[in-house]
Each structure stands twice: as structure tokens, then as C-alpha cells.
Amino acid sequence: MSQYVLRRLLIAVPSLLAISLVLFVVLALAPGDPFSELATNPNVPPEVQAALRAKFGLDDPIYLRYLHWLNAMLHGDWGFSFVSRMNVDTLILQRLPATLYVIGSAQILALLIAIPVGVYAATKPYSLFDQIANTLAFVGFSLPTFFTGILFILIFSVTLDWLPFVYSTDIKATGIRWVLEMIRQAIMPVAVLGLFQAASMTRFVRSAMLDVIRLDYVTTARAKGLGQATVIVKHVMRNAMIPVVTLIALQMPAVFGGAIVTEQIFRIPGIGSLLISSILSNDTPVVMAVTFVFACLVVLFNLIADVLYGWLDPRISLR
Amino acid sequence: MLDKELRSMIGDVKDGRMDRRTFIQRLAAVGLTAPLANQLLSIGGVAMAQSPVPYPPTKRGGGGPLKLLWWQGPTLLNPHFATGTKDQDGSRLFYEPLASWDVEGNLNPILAAEIPSVANGGLAADGKSVTWKIKPGVKWHDGKPLTADDVVFTWEYASDPATAAVSISTYADMTVEKVADLTVRILFKNPTPFWANAFVGAYGCIIPKHLFADYKGSKSREAPTNLAPVGTGPYKFVEFKPGDLVRGQLNPDYHMPNRPYFDTIDMKGGGDAVSAARAVIQTGEFDFAWNMQVEDEVLLRLEKGGKGKTVYATGGDIEFIAINFTDPNAEVDGERSSMKTKHPILSDPNVRKALALLVDRESVKKAIYGRAGRTTANYLNGPEKFVSKNTSWEFSVEKASKLLEDAGWKVGADGIREKDGKKLKLLYQTSTNGPRQKTQAIVKQACQKAGIDVELKSVVASVFFSSDVANPDTYSKFYADIEEFQIPMTQPDPALHMRRYISANVATKENKWQGPNFPRYVNKEFDEAIAAAETETDLVKRAALYIKCNDLLWQDTVFIPVMHRLVVDASANALRPVISGWANRTDNIQDWYREA
User: Fold this and answer.
1) Which residue among A33, A70, A286, B135 has its CA within the 20 to 30 Å range from the CA of B562?
2) How many C-beta atoms lie closer than 10 Å to residue B158's C-beta?
3) Which residue of B266, B275, B298 is the best one to mutate when testing the A interface, meaning the one whose CB has the most A CBs within 10 A?
């Protein structure tokens, strides 16, 4: 087991190196200039722009810049933002709590809806409940989040005036009021994201359950006289969860990576909005760091998923 | 123009025979605007009026929180590194200049005890030096006193090329010396009629010597104060999250009485303009939102029964279509749009004039800009004293067709005009942006009617405005026949705005296309007028020279002005923001208050 994990981690090193190389080259070749905003400003002479480029090493050849970056990364230096003139890790750590809170809650909400609904729908296929659940799931994942987000804002903020639609990082309250405010402002983004995720996940759980529920061993379990609840939870679900775990594990990096569209709509200061604003202002060190961290998380969670398989299904041996 | 009359009028004001207001009105009648009139008076020896902004609050604080929504949040808080207006706006909450620009474009003393004038000995008659007196008793947020040393240091800091400050050109060509503890003198290399550039407005913010002294030059980016500003402003720094939030709280030791009104200030960033308008006008979650680049129709809809309104300020920002004087399709020495070529079609002045006749500015205003735009024939639209009254524009497909017909451009079999085998086909580029694409469509339609085939192209803004030497689609490379965008006017003086187009500034491969004269316009008369204006200390003659430059651009149809754009913001109904079209939104933040 530990040998397996170690080997997987070693394999990850070259793939991460390759990923970082590709990312770096693509970003270096992409058009745009972090100091472009200066260009239309008549107060700023071109020499200043040139001096800034030189200062941030933008005029070096690509391979040199990549080696510099790699070397710094190995020493734990994530780079320096051109635009904010501060360290990239500080910038990312500042944004992480909001993303973890909102996107994490949305994932939990999605799981809380998808698993019970999917399981129950699978136990009674083509019943009225199943039909309704299916229809809602289709509606749910057909509607993009930018649409439902704006719809929610129109209904709950503009018309009803119940919820705020601008997320604020610093709520000026303490104790229970602070908690309530944090929940209140997160309701809309969490609902938008959570329902969207739940919709597709419900379909997935349902079909995974249906695959297993027809197998002979389930009939055997029933024949032994086990109750419906025990059969479903202990025998069917545990086996049906293997593909679901893969799906969830692959979605976990998104919890850290943020949701670009939703964060933009609700002005949540998360990683997603950091990424998009950095892309728009050509702040390559930040884009590079965020995408690279994202790549690492994908690799890591894939590994976790594989380890989890072994626990869920002892027949799968990890060598 | 009326040189003598003006002088006698200034004399009248001096002796009290005429009041300032009448003087300004008289000048306005002949086309000189208030800011110019005021600078005229100050050169003529009459002290500038201390800006009479009504400010009813009678005590400091008590106004609760002020919540600002900037849909692009500040990303850094050092005014001398501020790449965009958003950063300047954020820095300005904490740092202050010696003077700000008020709503009319007059100087309003902030850290200065008074505005320099000839009468108070601040302005030298030869225009080569300015003496500023600093207000006594001003303290930095950490309790240290503000002195002339800080002002001198700010100049040293910003003018050091190793610091790589974006404000460097503001502080070039001058030296600043300490005269007394609270007096500094700026010595210009050349006579400088527009002396109110250094230490005024966003780039004029004074920084504390005791915190930045160790971080001048190449170590500038390491200064901890870059992220935690210590200034003299009405609000003290509390917290900063780049791109997301700037927070400040009332400065109890602020140097102006009864100010500031608000107890705390929050500047939230992110999102888009439409939802920012909604948060202020419709739901009232925020008090003020910046830069409403939203179609007027949408704003009008939001304003119906809303909790807020849009507010406008007039500056000099101009949206225009520029003409390429060189050939974008011929490559000479590896360079397109080279100065060695001439545009095959647009070098014919009749074609350029016809194009100007084909831009339906009234429709553009009606369909796109609404209350946020004014139609104009001028490239230079402010301050009033510099605005030409000699120009005019009209929209007429018939006149344009006739002009082309007379110039020998005959309609061919395919409905497109041609002359000497050259088809009247033009490539029209701009940045990707809703209003611009609509303008393109309106212009294209009119051109088609007149027999001109226009191909439209839009380039992503981050590419179009970049200075990337390798990219062919930047505005400065100008590999198109005509192009549209906006140039903002960042100060109430035309010097920088107009000098872009002297022949020495042409964008070429040699200067990596960094020359700001992108139409590649060459006119000796224009060059001479700019050179003369830059050393002319007689303000009236100087204004006349800039008006002449504008008129030359108009006669030669270098630019086809599309819209003189106003500054649009959204404000809560009770909030009284003080916004100048000539400065940053927060340049007069100390005067903001809320009506009870």
C-alpha cells in the first residue's frame, strides 16, 4: 500500500513538470502585456514601461524565465504579482477561505441532495418520485449557473429584497450575528452551484445504483431475510459508490479552484475571480501559480480516489 | 484674440470692479472655460477662489459607513505605482496631494496652505518656478508631522528611474527644493505654463519620507508600506485585499474641520458594471459605484423607482475614429504602416472628409451613449477655454457621395467606388466592446450607402491596447485603414493630450511602436504650434495655440470624433459625492457626505 502510494507520487513528478512546462510556454506565448494599461495613458512615457518590463524580467528568453520560475518554486517562492506587487502565495491564501467556504458548502449541499435522492429514485425506478427527480435533474443541469445566478438575484435580491447579492469578506458583526450574516450571504451562490452539481450527480448516483441493484448477490441478501435498509445501505450502496467516488474526487480540485462564473456574479473574492482578473490583466505569475496548484490538486485527488477504491472494494488490490 | 480686452478685464477683477463670476461668464461667452479663466486670473495676479463646495456637516464623523463598489478593485495602494485609475482611486483614500481638481477644474488646496498665484508670490512671472506653502499642523496617520522634506522626497522617489514609478514623467524636467520647513519650490527647466501637474491629483500624492526612505530606487517593490499605506488622508488604512477590498476608518486627526463625514469606508471590487449599477440604484446595497459603462437604456430602466441615480461629470475623454496616413498593406523593411509609404486611398483628403460626413454621431449618441455622451467635431473637448468654436460636423450621405464623385471615385459594377483601379475598401478595427461594435455597424451602413466597402474587425482589448511588439493587432501598430477607441484626458490641460501627434512621436518599428502618434500624422504647422504652446506663458495665446492644433487635426481629418464621453457613476439618492471630470473619482473624497 505505502509502496503503491510512493510509486504513484514519483510518477506524478514528471507529469507535473510536463504540465508546468506546457502552462508556462502557453502563457508566455499568449498575447498581452501586464503593463498594457499604461500604454494609453499619456502621462506614462514608454521608457517607464520598458523599465518595468526589465525589472520583472519580462524581456528574458522563455527558457530562462521557465528555469527561474522552476527554481523559485522548488524553494517555495511562488512568484511575485506584476499587478499587485506582492507575493503570489499571500494573494492566493487571502482568497482561499472564501472559495473553500462557498464551493465546499455547495459540494456538501450537492452530495446531501444527490445521494439520498439518487438512491431512493433507484430503489423505485419509474415511480412518480423517480420521474419528478429525473425531470428536475434535467432542468438543473441544462440551466447554466450564470443564468440561474442572475435569476436568483432578480428574485431574491431585487424583487423580494431578502438576500444581499454582493458577497462581503468582512462582515462587521461578531458572534451569532456574524455567523448568520455569513450564512445569509452564501445562500444564493451555494444554492446556485450546489443545485447545479446535485442535478448531474443525482443522475449519476441513480444509474450507478441501478447497475448494482439488479445483481444476484442483492437478491441473495434479500433472500437471507435482510431488511430493505440494510440491503440498500450495506450491500448496494457500498458497491455503487465506486464510480461516484471517482466523480467526487475529480470535483474536489474545483473546491480549491473556485467557480469562475459564480464567483464573478456574486463578487465572491475566491480563487476563481483571482484567476479571471489575473488573466484579464495578464498577471502571468498569478495565473501560472493558480493553474499549477490546480494541476497538483487534480493529480493528488486522483491518487486519493484510487486509494479509496481499495477501501470500498477489497477485491481491488493496490500494487 | 481679444488680448487687450482680457487684460483690462483681469485688471477690473483685481481692483474689485468686476466680480469673478462675471469674469468667468464673460470668458465662457467667448469660448474659454472656467478652469482656464481661473488660471488666467491667477497668472494675472488675482488669487484663485477657494472652491466653494457647500459642506453642511458640522461635526466630524457620525455618517456611518460609506460603501463604494468598484467593479475592478484596486490591486495595489502605492499612488506612484498605480497602473490604472482603480489603483489611483484606492490610494487616494489614504494619501493626499497638495491640491486636487474640483468639479469645475479649479485647484482646491488639500495639503497646501494656499494655491500659488502671482499675487501671493507663489508663481514666478517667467513661468519657471512655483512655490508651494504647506498647511501647518498636518500629521501622518502614524503621528509624525508632514514637512517640506516629505514633498521633496516624493519628487526624489518618483523621478528616480530605478523606482520605476508610473508617475515619473510628472516629475521629470524639474527639481524640487526645500525653502523652509513648510515651503517647497519647484524649479522647471523650461517655462511651464501648466505648473499644476506635480503634486496635484492622483500622481501628486505625497508619501511619507520616514517610511519610504529605505525603499527608494531598485528596492521600491519591497516596501511594506506599499500594501499598508500611511498617509495624511481623511481615512486611516485598516485592511487591503488586492482586487477585492480596501477598508479605512475615520482619521480623528484629519486636518480639515468637520471632515470626513463617514466613520468607515469600504471599497469593494469585482463583478461587472451592470450588476454594480443594480447594487447601487436598485437594491441600495452600496452607496456609490464607479464607471457605469452600461447602455443608457439599461440605466434608465434601473432608475425607475430605484434607490439611487446616475451622476455625470464632464471631462475631456474622446472616443474617435483615427485615420491611418500610411499604407497598412505594404511591407517596407519588414514594417507595415511604414512612414515610407502613403495610404493609397486615405491620403486623398476628399476621402477622409467624406468619411467624416458618414459618421452619424447623433444616431450613435441616441442608440448607444445617451446621457453619457455629447456629439462634437473636436478632438480637444476641454477644459472649455481650449475648446475650438471654429469647427463643425454634419452627417450627410449625399454630400459624402458628391465629394467622392467630384474627386473621381466612381461607382463600379459591384456598387463600390473605385479610382485608378483602386477599390474604395477599408478595414475598420476597434477593441471588442459592445458600444464599439454598434458604432462600427452604424458607420458601415452609412459607408455602404455612399459606395464605400467597410470590413469590420474587433480585437480583444487586452491585445488591442497592449504594447506587445510581437502582436500585429495592437492599436499602435495600426495594421488597418481606420480604427476606433477612446483616449482619456487625465488632467485639465491639453499639453499631454495634444503633443502625442507631433511628427517626432510617430509609432514606428524603430521605437517598437511606442511612439504615441499612431495615425502617423505629419504636419509641420502642427509641430510648430505645439512647440510654441509648450513654452508660451501667456495663457491666452497658449489656449489659442492649442485651439489651432485642434483645428488642424479637424481640417486634415486626422480624427473623426465619435463622442465626447462623460464620466458616469451611480450614487445612492442621499449621497452627495463630489466628482470632477478632471480627476480621479476619489480626488475630493474628504468632501463627500450624505444628506439626512
Assistant:
1) A33
2) 25
3) B275
End-to-end CA distance of chain A: 7
Question: Which chain B residues are within 8 Å of A273, Cβ to Cβ?
Answer: 243-244, 270
- If one counts every other C-beta atom within 10 angstroms of the C-beta of residue A180, the result is 12
- Lookup result for grid cell 451569532: A176
CB proximity A271 to B under 8 Å: no
Q: Does B161 contact chain A (CB < 8 Å)?
A: yes
Q: State what percent of residues in chain A have pLDDT above 70.
A: 92
Q: Roughly how many angstroms between the first and final C-alpha of chain B, as a whole number? A: 48
The confidence band for A249, taking pLDDT boundaries of 50, 70 and 90, is confident
Q: Quick check: A141 and A196 in contact, CB under 8 A?
A: yes
In contact, B191 and B534? CB cutoff 8 Å: no
Contacts of B170 in chain A (CB under 8 A): 43
Quick one: cell of A276? 479571471
**Is the CB of residue B394 less than 8 Å from the CB of residue B362?**
no
Instruction: Name the one residue in this structure whose C-alpha cell is 488622508.
Output: B233
- The torsion angles phi and psi of A43, rounded to 5 degrees, stand at -75, -20
Best mutation target, B66, B67, B283, B477, to test chain A (most A CBs within 10 A): B283
Q: Which residue has the cell 488591442?
A: B464
Which residue, among B311, B292, B286, has the nearest Cα to B67 in the 3D structure?
B286
The arithmetic mean of pLDDT across residues A191-198, rounded, is 90
* B window 492-521, beta carbon within 8 A of A: 496-497, 500, 511-512, 514-516
Asked if A43 and B485 come within 8 Å (Cβ–Cβ), the reply is no
Q: What is the pTM of this model?
A: 0.80
